[in-house]
């Protein structure tokens, strides 16, 4: 069962995989957030059935929001929709989860693959944070007096990966044909670090979280972790974040990963 996360939450890429499970566990928590916005780039597409069922079951909690994180117009429109529904126009938690992995060895990787993956995995989170910053700032200002209660402040969690770590990427993955993905997530890590410094003064905590190697379309069936276990761990980590975690990369068990 999910850890206690209060206030309002926005998850990108929530129609399948880890994003869907995040929304599910947040809904089914004994103490759910007050509002959950489930971003999804094609709400009428074929891969949204499970999210729609979840939203139907938890109508008072979940709002599906059309949101393509590679499209500025879509992000702007989503911010209007979410902003119009947010209580006190205040967003407590933004989880930048949406990502793509286009496999590519050195010979297979060209400009197009690099740009496409960067657009989703690095540029998308930057644009999201910029567009939702006002709401994150409002939440942080409101919770200023209760700063020790991490679940009530505002935070941005960028979903990253162990294999983006320059120091800790396991040898087997260093040789895997994943140039665009690993490089884009390493850039996301630096974005996280920069933002954490920049937004510290606003009381907004920014960190990166590795979900483990997880059984999703991206992780594949041979991955050792179920989405349930990964997300339970992720939500435990998120709910116990403190200022000491600003600008860090943690795994789903709360262990620090060197950049
Ligand atoms: P999946 O491939 O299973 O799901 C990816 C999700 O992102 C889908 O909902 C997809 O939507 C969405 N998405 C992709 N592009 C966009 C876009 N432009 N706009 C909005 N949504 C988009 O991945 P996982 O659930 O496995 O991964 C979730 C996160 O965890 C990612 O950040 C990933 O890098 C990270 N991660 C995953 C690991 C794993 O082992 N699974 C390991 C380490 C990190 P659609 O259905 O429309 O394509």
UniProtKB/TrEMBL annotation:
Q: Cross-referenced InterPro entries, in alphabetical order?
A: Fungal_SecMetab_SDRs, NAD(P)-bd_dom_sf, SDR_fam
- Please list the GO terms describing molecular function: oxidoreductase activity
The record's SUPFAM superfamilies line, in alphabetical order, gives: NAD(P)-binding Rossmann-fold domains
Gene3D superfamilies the UniProt entry points to: NAD(P)-binding Rossmann-like Domain (3.40.50.720)
User: What GO cellular component entries does it have?
Assistant: cytoplasm
- What domain of life does the native source organism fall in? Eukaryota
- PANTHER family recorded for this chain? C-FACTOR (PTHR43544:SF33), SHORT-CHAIN DEHYDROGENASE/REDUCTASE (PTHR43544)
Report the family membership: Belongs to the short-chain dehydrogenases/reductases (SDR) family.
Write down what this protein is called.
C-factor-like
Q: Which organism is it from?
A: Alosa alosa (allis shad)
């Amino acid at each position: 069962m999910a850890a206690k996360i209060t206030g309002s939450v926005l998850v990108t890429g929530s129609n399948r995989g880890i994003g869907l499970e995040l929304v599910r566990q947040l809904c089914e928590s004994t103490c759910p957030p007050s509002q959950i916005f489930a971003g999804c780039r094609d709400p009428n597409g074929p891969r949204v059935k499970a999210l729609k069922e979840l939203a139907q079951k938890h109508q008072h909690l979940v709002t599906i929001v059309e949101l393509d994180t590679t499209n500025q117009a879509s992000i702007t429109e989503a911010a209007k929709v979410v902003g119009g529904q947010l209580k006190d126009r205040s967003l407590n938690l933004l989880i930048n989860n949406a990502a793509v992995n286009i496999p590519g060895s050195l010979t297979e990787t060209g400009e197009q693959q690099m740009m496409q993956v960067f657009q989703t995995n690095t540029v998308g989170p930057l644009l999201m944070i910029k567009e939702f910053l006002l709401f994150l700032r409002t939440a942080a200002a409101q919770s200023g007096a209760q700063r020790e209660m991490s679940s009530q402040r505002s935070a941005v969690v960028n979903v990253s990966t162990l294999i983006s770590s320059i120091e800790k990427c396991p040898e087997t993955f260093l040789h895997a044909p994943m140039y665009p993905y690993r490089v884009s997530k390493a850039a996301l890590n630096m974005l996280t670090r920069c933002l954490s410094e920049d937004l510290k003064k606003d009381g907004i905590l920014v960190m990166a979280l590795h979900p483990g190697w997880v059984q999703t379309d991206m992780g594949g069936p041979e991955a050792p972790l179920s989405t349930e276990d990964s997300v339970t761990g992720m939500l435990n980590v998120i709910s116990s974040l403190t200022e000491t975690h600003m600008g860090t990369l943690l795994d789903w068990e709360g262990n620090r990963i060197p950049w």
